[in-house]
Design a protein that fits this description.
Chain lengths: ~350, ~350
């Protein structure tokens, strides 16, 4: 098979930054220098893996659990991670749902740190983006039937990214009225590839129609909002902020969880509940959250051909939350939450920054 | 990453058969000699690929469409395929559902033939099993977001197998009452990995409880039977044979389709319809069908803790169908259906048997 990896310029060894046009950085794939790989036999536990040069995987047809995180370079040149332990826990719950062994939280966080350090020249300058970190767990051993897979691989790679949504003035969503993303007893509540490829068709159609993204309704009734293709949704009405409750069909986003806490700090009442489409259409303001989306304003939704607009701009709660969250992530304000992990020689024993 | 492929003895070049203990052949993975690989860029069409030595894939995290077929060695040493065109069409419909480009029917069938010829020493002796053929289509290009994938790979590999279910006296199924396999607007109607990993957990639990396999109920109502983990289901009551209708949530099995036709030839009335659990429990006989399962009798189902038994043995319709279908597949009787494709120098232009 022909090599499939896109070969992009990698850094010379004595540069502070990799050879990337940071000002043009979008949300796409760049090949970086190193990745982390560990393997695990069925019935065994993960042993410590190692950093290896980035390469395509050698795998058998696989199932994957995907979990995302990011590293940030602060203005005073410190390197920060945001809640990597929460991503580790989510990978564990996803692995349990899909009957896979999984690394410990410590191993997960250590692997993420190693990848960041091994690729530290790829962390964008402050304000230019983040180093997106993708830990993956998949069945890598050969198997003809479906279960159990004899070997699993846990790997982490990283890639510099800009904003996920380019529409800074607010997203225009299509409320998907035919295809559902997840159903009760399915895998909608874990970060798994099984949640994405089945709804590519809806995202492709919506983008062809000029929409920014898709908002899915619940499969059981088709009446309540669930989430976007890859982010959680919040609606604001007066002093009350509502977001779909965690019921097994939406992803328990780490950013979602952080935003709920910050919104409460701002004095709003936050309700995790069933959110009917009607409540969304009646909202003052709507936004979405995610590792990649951070906090992104939604300017409009279109449901059954009718478009409804919402408040956008600098005076929105979304703008306030975005500023507060990124201030914490970028180390511009003190982190009173204990959400950030600074990579120092002290916090990364055995690793040299 | 450490090599993950299981290295099993391959054949010396002058043997008729590979170095396999055919009498011990079960349904598991063996590494054979060669495979077929073609790649396709996004927005382009598949060009002809090539036969290469079997190796693990080099891929990025991927989504896959899986489609199965088999090659048989007849008693007079001819090599037969069973309805490869139908598998090609099913791969195409799966690719459309998952927004992937796909090979033409001719390319698909040609690729299958090439793999069989390149691995012909791995086709089991008559009665010992079949050469199981796995064509796979997956997004192989690197991408950080979810859509579109910049490159796709179509590959075919093959592996000798015995029977899928070892329970020759009949399967004992658990009717799964909590997890669903597929839901309306999902991918249950195409052969995709997204249909399997979400229900590994149920299969693992059922097997741990001593069951042979799982029978799933529909997600919308939980009242009607759909299919087993990887095969279709039929119920017999008097002179009427019923099987769940194709509605987008069950796989349109090629064996299912063939069995419907043979059953009608036998003089039974066949109904493709909604099949409530109650009708199953009231049946005289139950069986499942699939490329790997062929036709397998179901001895019992257990629903909410209550076990119901069905007719088994040589005098069942399942036994009669199994004999007739395998007679056709193995070339023991004339194929009046036009289902089999014999591999000869005439039917495989450019390939030398």
């Amino acid at each position: 098979m022909a090599p499939s990896a896109q070969i992009l310029p990698t850094s010379a060894s004595d540069e502070k930054y990799a050879n990337v046009k940071w000002e043009e950085l979008g949300f796409g794939f760049y090949r970086t220098d190193n990745m982390y790989v560990a393997t695990c036999k069925y019935g065994e536990s993960f042993q410590e893996g190692s950093i290896v040069p980035y390469a395509d995987f050698q795998i058998s047809p696989c199932s994957a659990v995907l979990n995302y995180g990011q590293a940030y370079r602060t203005e005073d040149d410190r390197i920060m991670l945001f809640r990597p332990d929460q991503n580790a826990l989510r990978l564990q719950s996803g692995a349990q749902r899909l009957c896979m062994p999984y690394p410990s939280v410590d191993q997960f966080v250590s692997a993420v740190k190693k990848v960041v350090i091994a690729n530290k020249k790829w962390i964008p300058p402050p304000g230019r983006g983040t180093l997106y970190i993708r830990p993956i767990l998949f069945g890598s051993g050969p198997i003809l039937g479906s279960f159990p897979v004899p070997e699993y691989t846990f790997t982490v790679f990283a890639c510099p990214v800009g904003r996920y949504h380019k529409d800074n003035v607010g997203l225009n969503l299509k409320i998907e009225d035919k295809f559902r993303r997840a159903f009760p007893s399915g895998t909608g509540g874990v970060k798994s590839i099984t949640n994405y490829s089945p709804v590519w068709i809806t995202l492709a159609e919506a983008k062809a129609q000029g929409f920014s993204d898709v908002l899915f309704l619940d499969a059981a009734t088709g009446k309540n909002i669930e989430e976007l293709f890859a982010s959680n949704v919040f609606i604001v009405k007066g002093n009350v902020v509502s977001t779909p409750e965690i019921s097994g069909t939406i992803l328990p986003g780490v950013t979602r969880n952080s935003i709920i806490e910050l919104t409460r700090d701002f004095g709003y009442k936050v309700k995790e509940r069933v959110v009917p489409v009607e409540d969304l259409l009646d909202a003052d303001e709507v936004f979405c959250t995610g590792t990649a989306a951070i906090v992104t304003t939604i300017a409009s939704v279109t449901f059954k051909g009718t478009k409804t607009g919402f408040k956008t701009g600098d005076k929105t709660l979304a703008a306030e939350l975005f500023a507060t969250l990124t201030d914490i992530q970028m180390g511009r304000v003190e982190d009173k939450k204990g959400w950030t992990v600074e990579l120092t020689d002290a916090t990364t024993p055995g690793l040299k920054l």
